[in-house]
Task: structure prediction
Amino acid sequence: MILKYLFAKNEAIPVGSAAIFFGFSAIIWFMIGTGLGSFNAAKLAFPDFVTGTEMFAFGHMRQVHVLAVIFGWISMAFAMAMMYITPILGNTRLWSEKLGLWNCMMWNIALALGLTLLWMGVTSGREYSDFPWPLDLAVAAFITIPLAVNVWMTIIKRRTQGIYTTNWFFAASTFMLIIVFLVGNLPEYFHLTGLTEAYMTWWFAHNVLGLWITPVAAAIAYYVIPKVTGNPLYSHRIGHLHFWSIVVFYSTPAAHHLMSAPLPEWLKSFASVEGVLILVPAIAFVSNILLTMQGKWNMFVENLEVRFTVVGVLLAIPLNMQGGFQQTRSINWYIHGTGWMVAHAHLALLGFSTFLEAAAVYLGLQTLMKRKLYSLTLGNLHFWLLLIGFSTYWISMTIAGLIQGAGKIYEVPYIDVVIAEHPYMIARWLGGTMVFSSTILWLYNMWMTAREGTVIPAGRMPHELAYER
Result:
């Protein structure tokens, strides 16, 4: 169907088409990404699992898993949320559904090509920016810039007087993503090596999370909770504090990723202090959303989208407590380079971020397709499998990381550390496999919603009909 509209006039394309295609693309990439994650976890839990084939080696598969999740699931879910929410908050249409559809198609093609090259071993070798430089330029030209233009023009063409907090975040984050992506990949464009390459690599990795994933996920919460509960946002001023403090404090020099490197000491100290200050936007965000829930906490039990959103917001508490203090020298020396960091990364991407994106995709697809969720039972099963699977993964890897840290500090023989952490590697695989299973159920549920979901009457919202039979 997407091919049918690529060459149609913008006015002839149904409202929400781009968002729907982005939504389903995101779920499919999430299924691929978590499937690869389960496979990789199995290789760590059971060292004899699938050996002898170069393309299935952990070194090949890990980066494919990471970038499938970040640029496939997370970023496509963000694009879906932006193309669904931005027009609504501006009381207008998306500036160009046609551009959105082309954006979605080129995104899928570029990502599939990039991941295939990584799988074949064609890589920059730099973590989180593994794509070779021609792919980096393609991502900038066909993914980030078209998305940003569509969001900015929709906000400019709005028919409302002000700009709501969510759209502030969407507009700023798309701009910052372009800057982070182009600047962060400078080592490859200009063949920068050594300490400069290491520093720019981790500046990129830090700010992709800090100036793209974190603020856009938060922006979703600012929309979903007031929209579904019917409560106004508790405080727009706190929302502004969150916005400006995340821009100022999260865009750190990122030198805390390289505490043992010969970077200037003042730079590492500055990064650590400013890193702790991310608690300012974090506390502003969490308190604002939870206070918006006043009088509507029954919906945390009753409503799927609210449950996903609130759990994502609550996970921001341990995420930012960890993120702030593990940047300090007193903690960094112990946990750096251990499974603790793997657990923390998944707390950000599979916990905080994913729960908020899932809420946006659930609400957005039902609203735009005008179809009630096919099976609330499957939706609840998806939630619990995701939550229990993620929690199992996060807790087991945190424990494994502490074991590794102790082994490193007390100079325990490496093989003894591997033996000690082995049960937690099995738990990691079990948790990841539960997440993968939940995603298969979700894709089936949303596909059946599109095909057989009850039609939502005009003027009603899907959450209003959730428990009506």
